């Protein structure tokens, strides 16, 4: 359900992707994106090696948003509420849809849009159950059942003549009161593109994640990628992309791994 009283106040109720940074809302609208493989924190196919849901909020159930005119600029605002991240805490053992905690997800974004420039800051707060991680690392699990988690994000994008660019950063911190137990994470990316023609767009991009798993290990992923998208019709976009991923891990079993991806795809607007 949605309700719009004005541009300043809009309310949406129901399962939705919350407003956080710039790409989160449209990450699944692939025809709007030049990428085939999306920036790391938004690419669900990397879910087995990256804690994707830790970097950006995946769902909300109530959101208030809008913008306030300010001369030629607009001040954008959004505030959302979601359920606890523990709602599906242990699917491997059969627990699905049961949350025994009374915590919720709170978050929002404050931004500024001026002509072809857009920038903003985002944040979320919730409490997450890290007892499984603590048990694996042989820590007493009592102090890890409701660990405060804070996400901080920033985004910037622009369009200038035939050039366009976008960049994002997000940092995830856990307040667990154990300095040696460190699960903090960082993600950032930057993309610069150029319209060769009205329908053909080329770009280059750099993505990176930094994940701590102290006291066991750390994992860094760096991706250098470039590609081209061609709008064949208004509802059909042809894309090609190359990406090189460099993965380094402090564990001896996987010290360093380099991967090359060559992809070709069609994005269809329904």
Summarize the structure in short:
With 270 residues, the protein is mainly beta.
Key words describing this protein structure:
single chain, 270 residues, mainly beta, Porin, 13-stranded antiparallel β-sheet, 13 strands
What does this 3D model show about the protein?
With 270 residues, the protein is mainly beta. The protein has a single domain (2-47, 59-90, 101-268), classed as Porin (Beta Barrel), CATH 2.40.160. The protein is 4% helix and 55% strand. It is built from two helices and 13 strands; from the N terminus they run ββαββββαβββββββ. Strands 1-2-3-4-5-6-7-8-9-10-11-12-13 form a 13-stranded antiparallel β-sheet, with no helix packed on it. It is globular. The model has no long low-confidence stretch (mean pLDDT 87).
Topology:
Blueprint: E1 2-4, E2 10-16, H1 52-55, E3 60-70, E4 73-82, E5 105-114, E6 117-128, H2 131-136, E7 147-160, E8 163-174, E9 185-195, E10 200-213, E11 217-233, E12 236-249, E13 256-268
Antiparallel strand pairs: 1-2, 2-3, 3-4, 4-5, 5-6, 6-7, 7-8, 8-9, 9-10, 10-11, 11-12, 12-13
Biggest sheet overview: 13 strands, antiparallel
Order of helices and strands: EEHEEEEHEEEEEEE
For the secondary structure, the number of strands is 13
Structural class: mainly beta
State the distance separating the first and last CA atoms. 22 Å
Second-tier CATH architecture: Beta Barrel
**SS summary, helix count:** 2
* Number of structural units classed as domains: 1
Described by the principal axes of the CA atoms, the overall outline is globular
Model regions low in confidence, pLDDT < 50 over at least 5 residues:
none
Q: Provide the helix percentage.
A: under 10%
Approximately how much beta-strand content do the residues carry?
A: over 45%
Q: What is the name of the CATH topology?
A: Porin
Rounded mean pLDDT is 87
Multimeric status of the protein: single chain
CATH level-four homologous superfamily name? Porin
The CATH class:
Mainly Beta
- Largest sheet strand order: 1-2-3-4-5-6-7-8-9-10-11-12-13
Measured on Cα atoms, how large is the radius of gyration? 20 Å
């Amino acid at each position: 359900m949605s309700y719009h009283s004005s541009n300043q106040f809009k309310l949406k109720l129901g399962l939705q992707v919350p407003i956080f940074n710039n790409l989160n809302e449209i990450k699944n609208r692939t025809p709007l994106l030049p990428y085939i493989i999306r920036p790391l924190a938004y690419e669900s196919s990397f879910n087995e090696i990256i804690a994707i849901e830790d970097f950006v909020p995946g769902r909300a159930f109530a959101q208030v948003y809008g913008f306030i005119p300010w001369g030629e600029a607009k001040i954008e605002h959004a505030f959302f509420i979601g359920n606890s991240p523990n709602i599906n805490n242990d699917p491997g053992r059969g627990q699905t849809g049961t949350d025994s905690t009374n915590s919720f997800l709170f978050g929002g974004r404050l931004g500024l849009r001026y002509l072809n420039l857009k920038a903003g800051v985002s944040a979320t707060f919730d409490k997450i159950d890290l007892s499984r991680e603590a048990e694996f690392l042989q820590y007493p699990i009592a102090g890890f059942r409701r660990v405060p988690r804070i996400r901080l994000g920033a985004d910037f994008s622009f369009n200038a003549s035939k050039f366009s660019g976008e960049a994002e950063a997000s940092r995830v911190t856990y307040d667990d009161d154990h300095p040696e137990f460190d699960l903090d994470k960082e993600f950032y990316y930057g993309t610069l593109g150029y319209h060769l023609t009205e329908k053909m767009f080329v770009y280059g991009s750099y993505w990176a994640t930094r994940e701590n798993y102290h006291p066991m290990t750390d994992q860094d992923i760096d991706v250098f990628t470039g590609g081209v998208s061609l709008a064949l019709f208004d509802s059909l976009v042809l894309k090609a992309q190359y990406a090189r991923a460099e993965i380094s891990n402090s564990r001896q079993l996987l010290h360093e791994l380099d991967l090359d991806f060559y992809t070709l795809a069609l994005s269809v607007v329904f």
